[in-house]
Input
Amino acid sequence: MADRIQVGSYTLKSRLLVGTGKYRDLDETGHAIEASGADVVTMAVRRTNLGQNPNEPNLLDVISPDRYTLLPNTAGCHTADDAVRTCRLARELLDGHNLVKLEVISKSRTLYPDVVETLSAARTLVEDNFEVMVYTSDDPLIALELEVIGCVAVMPLGAPIGSGLGLQNSYNIREILENLKVPVIVDAGVGTASDATVAMELGCEGVLMNTAIAEAKDPVKMAQAMRLAIESGRLAYEAGRMPRKRYADASSPETGLIE
Output
């Protein structure tokens, strides 16, 4: 697609952002991500070898920083301190790379974002010159506060992480879209291509997903499907849908009928 998405100082070609977890092996990871067409790839710093373990397979062998924009994330962090420490480690491992995805999650079975700790971590990271893309709840007030703090993208959940339930509160997503100037990217909850299309039709700048692709029966085909879904949803949003009507409206004119 011809349009681009501007996230902080980064200009992205694809509105589909993908993760690297839950694949069978690194080979499948590489093939699926290539099929997705994504140019932003996120990885959990606390769970992924980016070179800190020289005797283990390195994710960067299949996800080259020369080809993809890397987005280290703080998955698995439950406090602001842990998240900040993880981002600083990522910056050290990646030679000063400052684009990060902040997520601080609760310890409940929903893995719902801990917004209090998220706000605290966001303030520290922005002050430390990170460009912060932040995973958060679908609360419009929290989303606005994260923009005020200086985050370069706000990423509300569509549904709990890994649930595949699709967007469960499109009203809140719309409210966030109407009030924020930074890109709004749905993160978490997508299960299939139609879910991604819905998010894009609402006007979201993009969608980030991992489980929906990695846990599909055929991850490579699902990655292709998601790529097309994102493009389709974006085109539909730009085209502008017809208004909803309560009653029928004939496609053909009713004048000049043959008697």
